[in-house]
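Here is a typical protein record:
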Amino acid sequence: MRVSLIRPCPRLPEKYLKMMGNITPLALLSVGGVLQKSGYRCNLVDAFANRFSIKETVDKIFEFKPDILGISSLTPDYNVVIDIVNEIRKRAKIPIVIGGQHATNMVNQVLNSGLFDYIIKGEGEFTFKSPDFLKVMDAFNKMK
């Protein structure tokens, strides 16, 4: 099974993006490590580091042909996440997992959006280490 992990790029002027710095997305890399140990093939689409547009981000996602998509979201980039997910849904019906600070702290907003198949609160690595969660994802993916 193939999993794409996404770090979106917020819609901010370049001078603000530069001030934010380009911090390595350690949480996504940690989730990817857990998934790889469980036998999944993973890639990371770092739209922030590459300053990808929504179209470029979605194109990169589909180059990998994922079975499952995981997105990390901070509050400043949540609107970009919504746009990315809407573009993905136009092309394919794949399970989408959202985590990160926004999903953890604004769970009702994220849940009520109806865009995501799974919402992870807190540390995603712990959720993905659960064999039950991986089985549920596999079963969901087989139903499509």
Notes: The first helix runs from residue 14 to 20. The mean pLDDT is 85. The chain has one domain: 34-143.
